[in-house]
């Protein structure tokens, strides 16, 4: 058992990890991202396909992270001669470690002379090139006797490591599904017992958590193969393991876990919120669900209304003057949830005051304003985020992970709708219907921005061309002369309204073209009777389809061509390990709209506690806010021209 006296440091754990980048559909861009993770977390190696060695080494330059080439992958079926050439080429390219897959067919045939000769020839080439050899068994295919014999052969040949699995040794399990067990306790003990003491054991397949790593370490394992590197090491940091990952590229990366560290919880983060309408209240409520975060002031349209809101929400200080609030309260971070027309000036003032900023979308009214704010935030080295909270439904994250792992194949079609009915009647009124307050677009800027951000986030694709058609269902709306709370549904007497001409859209239909040639269709409306806040997306790929509906957020439909479709439930035991990071409750305990903001803020406030924007933030930033403004501009232009417009 790991105790305080023998607990490894974070860096020691990192040096036990070979970060695996071997999925058959992994693109060069995905290899690049994986190598950057390997570099940032200062692991032992990144395991890559032989053609990616030089790409990896360019990223690792100046660090002690190594490239490990995997040959004969995944089933060891190449001839010995081909494996020897692979090994020579990999070593020549700069791989200091080489993993090879044994010929499983020859093992199962009992042709031990062939197996030993192959391992010996490859080991000779590898060692002669100044590298080391790790031999992969694929234990799921093997009997106990076969594993023992392989351990004996590797000891006789004197390889550096023996390894449990490729992670692709799928075997039909008792439930009829094809899967693998990978590194089991039984097999690790067997390998340690029957391998020479100086030969190392590498556990691969199923080592996905810090506890998994600590457990196999207790069994004598000195290296693991893992795709969950970030999760494992972030958890070690969160638990307070000594040391850190000493890599300059890691600036801000660990912010995603730092907010939970006890040493950081001593000093509360002071937060101010500007704009206490519906969404501003969501901000306050969600912020109060974070440990060590305090809402200390709010700003609203008048001093009287600000004080009333502050009293209702038990916030100690109230302001109508945003600048005075910044100067007197000196918050660590400010949330801006005011009408759109106020965003630019408030964000700029906060950044100039050295305050971190979370802004509702849109970030500003124009692309030029957003560009200025992004540049200023970078110059000031401040945390900056945009409230694209729909990304933080767990099964939205799961769709993204399915795409990243290649389960969807090449995406060729995207369908999306975002429908509401809160502006269904001409008497429904809000500042958003006024172009001076909201900008050139209403429904696209208000909810279409969420939908298109979600689509690009999940698909990993960029929209490159748009065709839009807008409709204003109520060209004249009735503006109440008395205060009426949005969403209340209250009606006044006819004499209590003024007729106001409306220049912005109530609904929009948009066709999308993506950079990979995929096509998309999006519909957004705030006049769809009965649809309160319904987001629907469907991604169709060459392998499968996925569909998600925000009114049933804990269900993800997976469509398959040749087998039964299935519904995946939001359950931390059933989803990808990265998805688990934004799930707070067990399966069957529903999480919804309010939880999305909480999960988003967890990541943002990790960075706030670090005092700077991470190098590669996990949350949406001003750059994403700028992106959505650019897209919105092009969509508005397309509607005006009634033509395709390039982005």
From TrEMBL:
GO molecular function, one term: deoxyribose-phosphate aldolase activity
Alphabetical GO biological process terms: carbohydrate catabolic process; deoxyribonucleotide catabolic process
Sequence ranges assigned to domain GFO/IDH/MocA-like oxidoreductase in this UniProt record: 396-546
All residue ranges annotated as the Gfo/Idh/MocA-like oxidoreductase N-terminal domain in the record: 269-387
Record carries keyword Transport: no
EC number annotated for this UniProt entry: 4.1.2.4
Keywords noted in UniProt: Cytoplasm, Lyase, Schiff base
Domain of life: Eukaryota
One Gene Ontology term, aspect cellular component: cytoplasm
SUPFAM superfamilies listed in its UniProt record: Aldolase (SSF51569), Glyceraldehyde-3-phosphate dehydrogenase-like, C-terminal domain (SSF55347), NAD(P)-binding Rossmann-fold domains (SSF51735)
Database matches in Gene3D superfamilies: Aldolase class I, Dihydrodipicolinate Reductase, domain 2, NAD(P)-binding Rossmann-like Domain
Matches recorded under InterPro entries: Aldolase_TIM (IPR013785), DeoC (IPR011343), DeoC/FbaB/LacD_aldolase (IPR002915), DeoC_typeI (IPR028581), Gfo/Idh/MocA-like_OxRdtase_N (IPR000683), GFO_IDH_MocA-like_dom (IPR055170), NAD(P)-bd_dom_sf (IPR036291)
Cytoplasm recorded as keyword: yes
Catalysed conversion reaction: 2-deoxy-D-ribose 5-phosphate = D-glyceraldehyde 3-phosphate + acetaldehyde
Family: Belongs to the Gfo/Idh/MocA family.
Protein name: deoxyribose-phosphate aldolase
Organism: Glutinoglossum americanum
């Amino acid at each position: 058992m790991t105790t305080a006296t023998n607990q490894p440091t974070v860096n020691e754990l990192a040096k036990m990890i070979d970060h695996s980048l071997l999925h058959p559909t992994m693109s060069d861009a995905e290899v690049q991202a994986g190598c950057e993770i390997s570099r940032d977390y200062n692991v032992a190696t990144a395991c890559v396909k032989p053609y990616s060695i030089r790409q990896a080494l360019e990223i690792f330059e100046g660090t002690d992270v190594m490239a490990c080439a995997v040959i004969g992958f995944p089933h060891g079926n190449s001839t010995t001669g081909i494996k020897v050439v692979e090994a020579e080429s990999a070593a020549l390219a700069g791989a200091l470690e080489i993993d090879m897959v044994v010929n499983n067919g020859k093992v199962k045939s009992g042709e031990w002379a062939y197996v030993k000769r192959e391992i010996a020839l490859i080991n000779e080439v590898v060692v002669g090139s100044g590298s080391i050899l790790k031999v992969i068994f694929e234990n799921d295919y093997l009997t106990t006797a076969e594993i023992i014999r392989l351990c004996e052969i590797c000891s006789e040949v004197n390889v550096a490591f023996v390894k449990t699995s490729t992670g692709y040794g799928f075997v039909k399990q008792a439930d009829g599904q094809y899967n693998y067990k990978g590194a089991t306790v039984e097999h690790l003990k067997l390998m340690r017992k029957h391998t020479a003491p100086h030969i190392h054991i590498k556990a691969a397949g199923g080592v996905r958590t810090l506890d998994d790593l600590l457990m196999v370490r207790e069994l004598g394992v000195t290296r693991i193969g893992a795709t969950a590197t970030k999760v494992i090491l972030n958890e070690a940091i969160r638990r307070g393991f000594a040391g850190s990952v000493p890599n300059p590229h890691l600036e801000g990366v660990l912010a995603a876990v730092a907010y939970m560290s006890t040493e950081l919880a001593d000093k509360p983060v002071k937060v101010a919120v500007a704009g206490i309408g519906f969404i501003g209240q969501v901000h306050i409520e969600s912020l109060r669900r974070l440990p060590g975060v305090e809402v200390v002031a709010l700003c609203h349209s008048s001093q009287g209304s600000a004080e009333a809101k502050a009293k209702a929400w038990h916030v100690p200080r109230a302001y109508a003057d945003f600048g005075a609030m910044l100067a007197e309260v000196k918050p660590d971070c400010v949330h801006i949830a005011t009408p759109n027309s106020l965003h630019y000036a408030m964000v700029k003032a906060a950044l100039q005051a050295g305050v971190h900023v979370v802004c509702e979308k849109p970030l500003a009214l124009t692309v030029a304003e957003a560009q200025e704010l992004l540049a200023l935030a970078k110059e000031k080295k401040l945390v900056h985020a945009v409230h694209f909270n729909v990304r933080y439904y767990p099964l939205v994250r799961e769709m993204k992970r399915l795409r990243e792992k290649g389960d969807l194949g090449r995406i060729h079609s995207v369908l999306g709708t975002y429908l509401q009915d809160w502006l269904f009647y001409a008497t429904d009124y809000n500042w958003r219907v006024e172009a001076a307050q909201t900008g050139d677009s209403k429904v696209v800027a208000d909810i279409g921005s969420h939908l298109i951000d979600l689509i690009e986030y999940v698909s990993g694709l960029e929209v490159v061309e748009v065709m839009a058609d807008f409709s204003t269902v109520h060209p004249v709306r009735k503006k109440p002369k008395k205060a009426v709370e949005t969403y209340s549904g209250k009606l006044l007497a006819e004499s209590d309204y003024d007729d106001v001409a409306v220049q912005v859209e109530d609904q929009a239909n948009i066709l999308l073209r993506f950079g990979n040639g995929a096509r998309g269709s999006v519909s957004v409306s705030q006049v769809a009777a009965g649809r309160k806040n319904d987001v629907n997306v469907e991604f169709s790929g060459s392998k499968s389809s996925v569909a998600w509906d925000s009114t049933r957020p804990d269900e993800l439909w997976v469509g398959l061509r040749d087998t039964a479709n299935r519904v995946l439930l939001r359950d931390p035991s059933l989803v990808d390990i990265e998805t688990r990071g934004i799930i707070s409750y067990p399966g069957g305990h529903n999480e919804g709209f309010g939880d999305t903001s909480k999960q988003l803020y967890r990541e943002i406030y990790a960075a706030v506690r670090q005092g700077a924007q991470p190098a590669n933030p996990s949350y949406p930033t001003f750059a994403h806010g700028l992106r959505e403004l650019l897209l919105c501009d092009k969509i508005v232009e397309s509607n005006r021209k009634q033509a395709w417009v390039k982005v």
